[in-house]
Amino acid sequence: MSWFFRIFLLGLGLTAGWAAEQGATPPNIVFILADDLGWRDLHCYGSPWHDTPHLDRLAREGTLFTHGYAAAPICSASRAALLTGRSPARLGFEFVTKLPTAKRPAGHPLVGPPYPLNLPLSEITLGEMLGAAGYATGYFGKWHVSEHSGGYLGWSATHGPLQQGYAEGDQEFGLHPYSYVAHPSAKSTPLAAGDYGHDALTERAIAFLRRPRSTPFFLHLAHYFVHDPIHSRARWLVEKYAARLLPGADPRRAEYAAMVETLDHLIGQVLQALDDLGLTQNTLVVFTSDNGGNPQYSANGPLRGSKWNLYEGGLRVPWIVRWPGKVSAGVTSASPFIGTDLFPTLAAATGAELPPDVTLDGRNVLPLWRGQSSDPSLVERAFVWHFPYYHPETGFSEALVEIGVNDFAISQTRPQSTIHAGDWKLVHFYEGNRDELYRLSADISEQRDLTKQEPARARELRRRLDDSLRDMGARYPTTSSTRNKDRP
Predict the structure, then answer these.
(1) Is 23 a member of any domain?
(2) Are residues 40 and 98 in the same domain?
(3) CATH of residue 359
(4) Exposed / middle / buried, residue 482 (Cβ in 10 Å: 0-12, 13-18, 19+)
(5) Which pLDDT tens digit goes with each residue over 257-307?
């Protein structure tokens, strides 16, 4: 008998047992995932440009985390880790999903591993875990951990969310410019002043919230905003932000800002629906982004780097958690955690049973979310990231050689891995077998490489990085004349 079937038979009993033990009903869960939203893109995270009143409200009513990390600097890998609690290196899912026939970058000294395609059905997802515990599960929006079907980002009929434990859902593009492919006239149809537009994806997610049910629910809402293409039909918003740009700034940043505010507005509609339905008090809301911001539009500074690379700008993302009476309101926390932690943490919050015989890389950080733990094993543990590819895939030679801070341009990312342990971070580059060492508390922008000043520390962190990757069965870049295999 499979794990899922055995737990499914116990599902309602699990939630009832949790309620009896805790003296309360299990919480509803709303997990909202933004796409490519940078760490500093929200007003509550210090953006001087963007208006985000609804996410600012969520932060006031919950806890804002300044040291929350994505599990990868790129979309599919990060999403696979959020879904499973397992690192991209362990999953062998370190890049965006691509067909085996996809053209590989040429002209580099190293070759990345084969591209990932489908998250295996054998992997246990959040939807399967919570569905087995008696939760009504719904997935709405971007999936992107399997082969596209019927067009870009179309859900796979064999490896989509409905085959991975989610009982219902919708892949509707809503207001995002992706929808222009099916509705080309929409792009040239501006919205009236003050109108953000009707987003079918958000409306369908809210309809899921409104369904009568006797069980708790898990809403997994994966927005397409603010991924490019960058465009907004709300020209009144674009004009508002264009007036804020400094002279000479890329005008696309005004379009991007309009998309950020639109995302905030849509999330506000979900929060309002929870209020209207009387669900706010017993609903755990978690908001984050899949990776750091796109450097062409997002001001990630003072963090260095962006989406695609392993400096802080590619990894550190917004994390806001609200659970009235359980998570403190109006608090800013520097407690560190990572995307793989979501899986075991939601298990702890709901009483769901973790899948047996599955190696998880995530930890239960509910004590950190609730401000109840200074356990060194949580606060000081090491995080590891692995990105064994080159980026950009085309136009590499035209990209900036150096990865900078707020340079608003795509840079050359080479195969790299990193370990972050306490105050220290080591970045390893596979070209030339080269390391960089940074002390983040004194150098948040990662400008002063301390490998020469701290050689023993660098060697120790490199050893821990190599050991961790070996334990995960990581795939490595190789020279074009060798097969991919574990490094000694």
Answers:
(1) yes
(2) yes
(3) 3.40.720.10
(4) exposed
(5) 999 999 999 999 999 999 999 999 999 999 999 999 999 999 999 999 999
